[in-house]
Amino acid sequence: MSETVMIVTGETSGELYGSLLATALKKKLQDIRITGIGGEQMQAAGVELISGITGSFGLVEAISSLRKIRETFRQAVEALRKDRPAVLVLIDYPDFNLKLAAEAKKENIRILYYVSPQVWAWRKKRIKKIARLVDKMAVLLPFEEKLYKDSGLDCEFVGHPVFDEIEAISKDRKALRKELGLKEDLPVLSMLPGSRTHELDRLLPVITEIVASFRKDQYQFCVPLAPNTDIRRYGRQLEELRAEGVVINKGKSLRSLAASDIAVIASGTATLQSVLLGVPTVVIYKLSPLTYFLGKLILNVKHISLVNILSGKGVVREFIQDQASARNVADEIRKITTDDSYRQEMLRAFDKVREMFAGKKASERVADIVIEMAIKTKKVTSL
After folding, report:
1. What's the pTM?
2. How far apart are CA 319 and CA 294, in angstroms?
3. Together in a domain, 216 and 155
4. How far is Cα 8 from Cα 90, in angstroms, rounded to an integer?
5. What's 345's domain CATH number?
6. 259 and 366 share one domain
7. Does one domain contain both 184 and 84?
8. 3-state secondary structure string across the chain
9. pLDDT of 323-376, one tens digit each?
10. What domain range is 311 assigned to?
């Protein structure tokens, strides 16, 4: 089957899922053409990029990206009309992707929404809008499936693509440390500052303070950066960290986590990665004061990290805004490393989360769904 599939994502985590999906599709259909919006990972997986990712988070952070987002949207609509893909795969990024879905629907293009917007946290009314626009949902979290099925939308819990990525890497900690330039005999503390510009702007200074709060013989430090990070923007801060002996790499977050004894992570996909790898974790996060204030008013969640959301309780500590300080993080790290019962309780909760996804292969299953939808499209257009 020679068909075109279009994959659209707006942020680094979604781009990872898009690249894994593209790889799975090309294994199943060698002659498939895949276009889309993404970054280096999707391009490396064989996706013909229409435009680069444009993601931002929060009201204040989005304003500076508005012009680029509008231009990217124009390019995406133009590509839809020109290429007429058999299936449009939308990955999260709802403000952009729902508008694109409306354009695709006008063109009678079948739409798979892969990775649900966090409708369970806010703007639950979006479920009805999504149900009107898309043909099928593929969701990553087990409780999301019922939300969409109750609206009458065809929906399937496919598992989480983080599992696919973890299965593909070595679990040999000694070999991983050697690859990353880390010592074998000193505990590794990895600190993941996120992929969005505002996350790096606010969390890199905190990370610098965390490093300074420990003696150099207590830990070796690793700061893995997302593949799309603009290194030049943070050159001075990264040089300060290197001067303190911190190992910095780009595009090796998962390997760094797998080599770690403990991790400090900006809330996001990496928190689930640490859970699946069994790495004790501390979560930190900072937003602009205005975005945080508005978020408190509209968000309907007690926790921000996936492990706590899935567990329904505070398995890992979350330090947000002013609480995201070097002192608080250092105290929590010391508690994890010195209180064996506390650490074991955390790891047992990690095991329970891992069981929720057992036997699921998200990228492979979503590739099958895309192919099934493309075949249906072909049958309809040939009538």
Report:
1. 0.83
2. 18
3. no
4. 5
5. 3.40.50.2000
6. no
7. no
8. CCCEEEEECCCHHHHHHHHHHHHHHHHHCCCCEEEEEECHHHHHCCCEEEEECCCCCCHHHHHCCHHHHHHHHHHHHHHHHHHCCCEEEEECCHHHHHHHHHHHHHCCCEEEEECCCCCCCCCCCHHHHHHHHCCEEEECCCCHHHHHHCCCCCEEECCCHHHHHHHCCCCCHHHHHHHHCCCCCCCEEEEECCCCHHHHHHHHHHHHHHHHCCCCCCCEEEEEECCCCCHHHHHHHHHHHHHCCCEEEECCHHHHHHCCCEEEEECCHHHHHHHHHCCCEEEEECCCHHHHHHHHHHCCCCCCCHHHHHHCCCCCCEEEHHHCCHHHHHHHHHHHHHCHHHHHHHHHHHHHHHHHCCCCCHHHHHHHHHHHHHHHHHHHHCC
9. 999 999 999 999 999 999 999 999 999 999 999 998 999 999 999 999 999 987
10. 172-356
Q: Does a structural domain hold residue 345? A: yes
Do 266 and 129 fall into the same domain? no
User: What are the tokens at 25?
Assistant: 């599709």
| Domain shared by 60 and 198, yes or no | no
Over the stretch 295-324, which tens digit does the pLDDT of each residue have?
564 555 688 888 999 999 999 999 999 999
- Structural domain total, the chain: 2
167 assigned to some structural domain? no
Structure tokens given for 355:
């069981």
Q: Are residues 324 and 346 in the same domain?
A: yes
Q: Is the same domain home to 192 and 336?
A: yes
DSSP state of 321: G
In this structure, the answer to whether residues 152 and 250 fall within a common structural domain is: no
